[in-house]
Write a structure and sequence with these properties.
The chain has about 725 residues and is of the alpha/beta class. Helix content is about 30%, strand content about 15%.
Length: about 725
């Protein structure tokens, strides 16, 4: 996939900002036409602003901003950072373009048209807040707090989410970062090794790095990628299990082109082989293992031959990979992944990764799973819990015992559409785009259309904002205080250090954009909860959080935005560490106590399994309207195996539609990328394209929306999370 992003082209795109079209149906004529964001104004001298924390993706690199007058001209990594250092990625650089995007939401708006086909009228903040509070209160009074649901995402959503969860008392909260991303990983590892894993693998010091569906480099999480590359530089062998020849697979010593959905079988087969060869870490297992005998018996059926047949992977390669791991243990990084909601059998796969760590004793030693010891003292500011909080639906029903925090998304949608077990009539969407995060878009639309009230808060007019009754413009991450970032570093700096930083504005918010504390507090006052407000403004909240560590905003500014302190040796295995190879509690809930392979539906004749993933220059749909990033990768080519392309008479650059097995056709087309680097039974594209909201004047209609083609629902039985790779498509020439 060619991105064609040269330094010259990247800099040239700055001039494109002036060419983007004003958002005619959201910004009224009274707003006028702003000057180019790169035209300096004011008389202030150039200055460097410290305290920036990026949110172009969730990795949140530490930044400084170059400001001229009152305009942000450039973003750079904070030289004091021991996390990302002076490095930021293309997306981080392009935060400037997000800040000054002509299509950004600017004023409170009221939809005087229909949901899905909005007509926007500019209104005052008072009218917007009065309407939101009145509608939410009416729902609360008629149906109780459970009549409200929320879909939050990002740092700014935490404060309003806690207001609705704690003080108002609704349990109907579903974060995409949990239910469509890492939630299964965290709960599976809690059930296996007693802690969520984060990305705590010491790749820089590993002898072998093992990634199951991980495409390091394409996700471009800067400090994480640095650790990965440092490991390769230091001689680590790399094993990548992926149906596609990803950027990581291109660097791998072993690329395992596994049949999608059979990853758990592969893990079980390798672990059985390691045990049969006597290469497991007996001393570690004797001291820290629980239920190993039962686990060993449960996976005995997974011979190399059976595994090879199930996974469509050569038997010799399975042995090589297993031997490579075992012979270099315990100094191996078994990466836990992040986005793991794949096929609806994902809890068991993530359990198997935790068991592999335990089998090899790859915990607490150099190059293995090492949980860094971060700084203490940073506090939390939260809304008090009200008296009328109700149980989440899955808890009351006794299902999905390993659900992440919140309520499984599909239960919320079903309740809203059917009214059972109770009606849900108001919806708050804050920084999330459920149209492109949740499978079966029509079901989400049906949910929204039956609501009495829909409120959206966002920075950009994403697809979901088309369904809002009231649309509120939020200050971006470059215009507000909020997020506290802490961490520890030991593998790149050569010494153990901890850091504490807080997000601070690079510039002040333009137009009528407001932050989350202002918006939430004003709604709370109008709903009768003004006496429960914990802080009056964002800077107050940040100072309260920092106070426990003896810090403040002022002190952090004096320290160039980052407080550093000595770290703690992260290595060593705690005596009380337990690895549950066989977990009797899981069996008590009626699920397999040891990791178990659950087969997925086979690909129908004439179709391909639709796979998707990250792009190195986009963060899903969030950056699709960014002129700089769009210029680098304007659409998402669909990868197809070269032999299959020949059968279909497709060549590189052909333009195609996708039609899924249920007859849903993509709204837009994209180009074909013909390659031997993908299995014959799959096609692949980057996620987040195909925006349908015309208010996104750059991203609308560019590329194919893979999520629109994901209509088959598969729900992970232990967690209630969606599988996201269960649809099959045909490619049809445009």
């Amino acid at each position: 996939m060619a991105f064609n992003l040269t330094r010259r082209k990247f800099l040239q795109t700055a001039t494109l900002a002036a060419a983007s079209v004003p958002l005619a149906n959201v910004v009224t004529a009274q707003a006028g036409v702003a000057k180019s964001p790169f035209t300096p104004s004011g008389t202030m001298a150039d200055k460097t602003m410290v305290g920036g924390i990026c949110e172009m993706c969730f990795w949140r690199c530490q930044l400084v901003g170059k400001v001229r007058g009152n305009k942000l001209m450039k973003l750079e990594g904070n030289p004091k950072s021991i996390d990302n250092g002076q490095s930021i990625c293309a997306r981080g650089n392009a935060g400037v373009q997000l800040l000054y995007d002509r299509d950004r939401l600017k004023y409170p708006m009221k939809n005087v048209g229909q949901r899905g086909a909005p007509k926007w009228k500019r209104i005052s903040w008072d009218e917007a807040l009065d309407t939101c509070a009145k509608k939410l209160k009416a729902t609360e009074q008629k149906f109780g707090a459970k009549g409200i649901c929320m879909f939050p995402h990002g740092a700014s959503a935490k404060y309003p989410m806690q207001y609705l969860e704690h003080t108002v008392g609704t349990p109907n909260v579903s974060e995409a970062s949990f239910f469509q991303c890492r939630g299964i990983r965290d709960t599976a590892f809690l059930a296996t090794i007693g802690t969520p894993p984060g990305e705590n693998v010491d790749m820089a010091n590993a002898k072998v790095i093992f990634g199951l569906g991980c495409h390091f480099g394409e996700n471009v999480h800067v400090s994480h990628t640095k650790r990965y590359l440092k490991g390769l530089e230091n001689g680590a062998k790399l094993i990548i299990v992926d149906p596609r020849f990803s950027a990581s697979a291109a660097k791998a010593d072993e690329w395992v082109a596994v049949k999608p959905g059979t990853d758990t079988a592969l893990m079980l087969g390798m672990m059985n082989y390691i045990i049969q060869q006597g290469k497991h870490n007996k001393a570690f297992i004797d001291k820290h293992g629980i239920g190993f005998a039962e686990f060993k018996e449960s996976i005995a059926e997974w011979t190399i031959e059976k595994t090879a047949q199930t996974c469509d992977v050569p038997a010799d390669q399975i042995k090589r990979v297993a031997d490579l791991l075992a012979d270099n243990a315990p100094n191996v990084s078994i990466h836990p992944g992040r986005h793991v909601s794949w096929h609806g059998n994902d809890f068991q796969r993530q359990r198997s990764l935790g068991c592999m760590m335990g089998l090899l004793g790859a915990m607490g030693v150099k190059g293995s799973f090492v949980k860094g010891k971060g700084p203490k003292g940073v506090g939390k500011v939260g809304w008090p819990k009200g008296e009328h909080h109700v149980e989440a639906m899955h808890v009351a029903a006794g299902i999905y015992p390993y659900s992440p925090p919140g309520t499984p998304t599909d239960l919320i949608r079903d309740a809203a559409i059917t009214g059972a077990p109770y009606p849900i009539k108001s919806c708050v969407i804050w920084g999330q785009n459920p149209i492109q995060t949740i499978p079966n878009q029509q079901k989400t639309i049906d949910m929204l259309k039956q609501m009495d009230f829909v409120m959206c808060v966002d920075v950009m007019p994403t697809d979901i904002t088309m369904y809002a009754d009231i649309l509120l413009p939020e200050a971006s991450y470059l215009e507000r205080y909020d997020f506290i970032k802490t961490g520890t570093q030991w593998d790149l700096s050569g010494k153990q250090q901890q850091y504490i930083s807080a997000r601070m504005p690079m510039v002040m918010a333009d137009f009528e954009r407001k932050d989350q504390v202002y918006i939430t507090n004003e709604i709370a006052k109008r709903m009768g909860y003004g006496d429960k407000i914990p802080v009056s403004a964002l800077p107050e909240m940040v100072d309260m959080q920092l106070a426990g560590a003896g810090l403040s905003i002022a002190k952090l500014i004096a320290e160039d935005g980052i407080h550093l302190q000595p770290g703690i040796d992260p290595y060593g295995v705690a005596d009380d560490l337990l690895v549950y190879f066989n977990n009797a509690e899981i069996a008590d809930y009626g699920y397999p106590a040891s990791p178990t392979y659950i087969a997925v539906e086979e690909v129908p004749a004439g179709h391909f399994r639709l796979l998707y993933g990250r792009s190195p220059v986009h963060t899903f749909n969030r950056t699709q309207n960014n002129v700089w990033l769009h210029h680098a990768m304007p659409e998402n080519p669909v990868w197809i195996n070269d032999e299959m392309a020949k059968e279909l008479s497709l060549v590189n650059g052909d333009r195609v539609y996708c039609v899924n097995s249920e007859g849903v056709k993509s709204r837009n087309t994209t180009i074909v990328k013909v390659t031997p680097g993908i299995r014959k039974d799959c096609v692949y594209m980057a996620h987040g394209y195909g925006t349908k909201n015309p208010a996104m004047s750059v991203g609308a209609g560019a590329g194919i929306d893979d999520q629109a083609l994901i209509t088959i629902l598969a729900v992970d039985p232990e967690t209630g999370c969606h599988g996201m790779r269960n649809n099959f498509v045909k490619l049809v020439k445009a």
